[in-house]
Each structure stands twice: as structure tokens, then as C-alpha cells.
Backbone:
């Protein structure tokens, strides 16, 4: 997808969302619990000295984590305001020279070809659910990554009992089943985005020509979705127990099928027919 095809409305949506992103998710008890679950995997698969490409980097929290562990990160996001906040986050930090930020849509990462190859790639917290063509992203990633490079993708789950029960209890049946639909539009005053609920099978099929799925785990199985933060703050002890429970069940097939997000670990094939 070319720059002219990227929705200006979507850019404006994320620029607006950037103002409260840390408050609404990153800085919450639930958000930190989810991010720590992803970081456990990052720390297992990425190594000091590697160059990592991060898609939809938001305000740079994951980039900072990687850089603090000795990696070099090219952190990309469609929203210039997210990138601005990311630069502010790392300004003055010891890791400042290890992170480069770039305002670029995920659909446009093919333009980074001259800056590869990278040792790995990351897309956290459902950024790819804003992309219509996963196959195009996979193809571009395959050209940017070294053979056998690892890719971690965190996408939204499609069957989340927490969400279904919560919205049914609050007489909002449309929201209770929204993930069963292919596309959902979310609206802010300055813009809108289309959330696409890709199934795991669809994601694996889209990446299959260039990548092999190595691992899958659930993120947010017992821990509730982020809009229950007020509840989590009322019962912090219970939240900690739920987070521990997530670690016990995150790899179990039945449990991970009910997660708010699914973390997929792919490996770039050593040889692909491109």
C-alpha cells in the first residue's frame, strides 16, 4: 500500500489517541501486566547487539525495553504524535543512541529495504489489526529480515469471555459480539479506524509463504481487558493472582483461545520462493 492509500483519518485517530495512550493503557495495572507477558517472550528470543524492527511502536515503551537490554531498534508508527512522545521518552536516557524513530505506516515498511536486513521484528498490542492485507506486510517483512530471524506479533483475540460477559451484563450486546465480526469501526472526534479481527489461522496463512509459526501463547486470559482498569485498581491483590494464573495457562490450547490478545512467534525461512 502506498502512502496515498493510507487513511488520513486513521493517522488523525492515532495522533489524538496518543495524548492519553499511557494513561488509558500503558500506565495501567492491566496494561503493565499485559506488557510484561510480552516482554518475557522478547527477552527469550531477542539478544544484545541485534537490530530489531518495531512496527506500531506507540510511545516507545517496548523500544526502550529492548534498547536497555543492548539491542538497536528502528521504531515505526503511523502517528507523528506517538513518535514525538517516543522521542521525548528516550531523550536523555542512556539508550538514546540505540533507538531511531520513524513516522511510517505498517503498510509502507517496504520502503525501508535499504536499511535492512534486521535480526528480528516486533508488532505489539494489535497494531496489525489495523492492517487490511496481512500478506503484504508478511512479504515486506520477509525482504527486511535475515534468514531465521524471529518475528513476534501480538494480535487481538476473537473469543474473549471476559468481554462477552462484561458487555452482556451492561446491556451492550453489540459490543459483546463485536470480535465475531470481521471489521469494527472505532470513532474519535478527529478520525476513525477500522479494526480487523484476524483469526490465528488467517495470520498463519498470510505469513506461511515466508515464515513458519514456532510458538503461540495467550496474553490476557485471566487478567481482564483494559477497560476494567477501575475494577483492577479496586482489587490489586486479586489482579496479581490473575496475572500469575495467566503465566500458568498461557500456553494451554483451550486457555489461549480465550485470550484478549494472542502472541505469535514466527521464524523467517532460510530459503523462500520470492
Residues:
Amino acid at each position: 500500500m502506498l502512502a496515498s492509500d493510507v487513511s488520513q483519518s486513521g493517522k488523525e485517530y492515532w495522533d489524538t489517541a496518543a495524548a492519553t495512550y499511557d494513561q488509558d493503557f500503558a500506565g495501567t495495572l492491566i496494561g503493565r501486566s499485559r506488557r510484561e507477558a510480552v516482554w518475557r517472550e522478547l527477552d527469550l528470543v531477542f539478544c544484545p547487539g541485534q537490530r530489531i524492527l518495531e512496527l506500531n511502536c506507540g510511545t516507545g515503551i517496548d523500544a526502550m525495553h529492548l534498547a536497555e537490554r543492548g539491542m538497536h531498534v528502528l521504531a515505526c508508527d503511523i502517528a507523528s504524535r506517538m513518535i514525538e512522545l517516543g522521542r521525548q521518552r528516550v531523550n536523555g536516557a542512556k539508550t538514546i543512541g540505540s533507538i531511531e524513530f520513524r513516522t511510517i505506516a505498517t503498510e509502507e515498511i517496504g520502503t525501508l529495504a535499504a536499511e535492512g536486513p534486521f535480526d528480528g521484528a516486533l508488532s505489539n498490542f494489535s497494531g496489525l489489526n489495523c492492517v487490511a492485507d496481512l500478506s503484504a506486510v508478511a512479504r515486506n517483512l520477509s525482504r527486511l529480515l535475515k534468514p531465521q530471524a524471529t518475528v513476534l506479533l501480538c494480535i487481538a483475540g476473537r473469543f474473549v469471555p471476559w468481554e462477552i460477559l462484561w458487555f452482556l451484563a451492561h446491556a451492550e450486546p453489540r459490543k459483546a459480539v463485536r470480535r465475531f465480526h470481521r471489521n469494527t469501526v472505532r470513532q474519535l472526534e478527529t478520525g476513525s479506524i477500522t479494526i480487523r479481527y484476524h483469526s490465528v489461522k488467517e495470520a498463519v496463512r498470510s505469513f506461511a509463504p515466508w515464515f513458519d509459526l514456532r510458538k503461540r501463547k495467550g496474553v490476557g486470559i485471566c487478567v481482564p481487558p483494559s477497560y476494567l482498569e477501575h475494577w483492577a485498581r479496586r482489587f490489586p491483590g486479586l489482579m496479581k493472582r490473575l496475572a500469575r494464573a495467566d503465566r500458568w495457562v498461557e500456553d494451554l490450547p483451550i486457555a489461549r483461545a480465550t485470550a484478549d490478545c494472542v502472541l505469535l512467534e514466527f521464524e523467517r525461512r532460510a530459503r523462500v520462493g520470492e
Q: What stands out?
A: The chain has one domain: 3-268. The first strand starts at residue 51 and ends at 55.
